[in-house]
Every structure is written in C-alpha cells, then in structure tokens.
Amino acid sequence: MTSHGPGDWVGGLAEWAAAGLELAGVLVLLVGVVATSALYLRAGFSRGQPGWSDSFKPYRANLGRAILLGLELLVAADIVHTVAAPMTLTTVAALGLVVLIRTVLSLSLEVEIEGRWPWQGPKG
Predict the structure, then answer these.
(1) How far apart are CA 64 and CA 113, in angstroms?
(2) Among candidates 26, 8, 5, which has minimal Cα distance to 83?
(3) How far is CA 17 from CA 71, 102, 103, in A?
(4) Which residues contact 29 (CB under 8 A, 6 or more apart)?
(5) Rg of the chain (C-alpha set)
(6) Which pLDDT tens digit goes with each residue over 70-103?
C-alpha cells in the first residue's frame, strides 16, 4: 500500500489543468489558422473589393493574433506544469528557456501586428 502526501492531489490537478491549457492553445492555433485563411480566401476570390492584395495585411494581422493567443495559453500551461513538476535546476532551466522563447515570439508578433512595442502608446 502506497502512502500519498497531502499535496499529491494538487500536482494531479495541475497536470490536468496544464493539459487543458495545452489543448486550448493548440485548438486556438488550429481554429485561428483555418478561420483566418478561410476569410482571406473568401476575400481574395470575391469579385469586388478588397481582393488579394488588400486582404493580405489583415490576414497576416489576424493570423498573428491567433498565434499570439495560442502562445499565451501554451505559456500558461508551462507555468502550471511547474506546480506538478519536481523543482530541480533542470526543470526550472527548461521552463525558463521555453517561456523566454515563447515570450520573444509573442513580442515579435505584437510588433508585427501593431507596428509598435507593447509598452508604447497607440499610434496617432
């Protein structure tokens, strides 16, 4: 018979929550790519305006937003994983590297979409 500590259920709950966040992040990415691509194709094939060239910039911006939201959910999942994972130097370093990479991606997407750094005020 194995003994379970009082914190075992917290780790299990954190694993389920992290898995849910990961699934949500992947779904947001997939749905975002499909939805924005469908809108772009519809606009491109329409006989009137905006057409392909006028639709491309909004398509990239909307695609970037979907990717950004998916990345934010995946970063949240990584953070929740830390509750369940044993805290070793290796796990902390791996988490730090993943969060750093995803944060740099998020910042670059934000600049790509908005044309400015997140801490700058709106263009105007």
Answers:
(1) 7
(2) 8
(3) 16, 19, 21
(4) 66, 67, 70
(5) 20
(6) 988 988 898 888 777 777 888 888 888 888 888 8
